[in-house]
């Protein structure tokens, strides 16, 4: 809505238009900055499992090694869940930007500026 409002006010009140555009840019940047670390969660889990596996080689009893292997095998390499149906991935930022762009376009088509 910030971008749409910015487009609507561009002729009648340019100061408000610029203010809404700046807030819109900040909102997009906040999304990218906030969720940037979430992309690395599956990689970090893999790294942790690899480190535990390497450390478990020092164990002397074979049954302890098997127990560690079973434990590591049971830990899933999943990322951050978005709802119950989607995992946060690198494409999520692009999907977010596409969502914003599509909604702005549909608002402009539905309610064109006067």
Alpha carbon gap, first and last residue: 17 Å
Give me the secondary-structure category: mainly alpha
Shape verdict: rod-shaped
Low-confidence stretches: none
Major sheet strand order:
1-2
List the helices and strands and how they pair.
Layout: H1 2-9, H2 14-35, H3 41-56, H4 62-74, E1 81-82, E2 86-87, H5 91-110
Helix pairs in contact: 1-2, 3-4
Overview of this protein structure:
- It is a single chain.
- By secondary structure, this protein is mostly helical.
- The protein has one domain (2-110).
- Helices cover 69% and strands 4% of the residues.
- The protein is built from five helices and two strands, in the order H-H-H-H-E-E-H.
- The protein has a two-stranded antiparallel ribbon.
- Strand 1 and strand 2 (86-87) form a beta hairpin.
- Helix 3 (41-56) runs antiparallel to helix 4.
- The longest helix has 22 residues, at 14-35.
- The radius of gyration is 24 Å and the shape is rod-shaped.
- The model has no long low-confidence stretch (mean pLDDT 81).
Short description:
The protein has helices at residues 2-9, 14-35, 41-56, 62-74, 91-110; strands spanning 81-82, 86-87.
Keywords for this structure?
114 residues; 5 helices; 2 strands; rod-shaped
């Amino acid at each position: 809505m910030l971008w749409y409002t910015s487009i609507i006010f561009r002729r009648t009140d340019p100061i408000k238009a610029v203010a809404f555009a700046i807030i819109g840019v900040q909102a997009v940047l906040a999304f990218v900055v906030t969720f940037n670390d979430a992309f690395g969660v599956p990689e970090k889990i893999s790294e942790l499992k690899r480190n535990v596996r390497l450390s478990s080689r020092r164990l002397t009893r074979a049954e302890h090694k098997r127990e560690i292997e079973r434990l590591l095998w049971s830990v899933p390499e999943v990322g951050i869940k978005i709802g119950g149906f989607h995992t946060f991935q690198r494409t999520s930022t692009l999907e977010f930007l596409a969502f914003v762009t599509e909604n702005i376009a549909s608002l402009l088509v539905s309610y064109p500026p006067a």
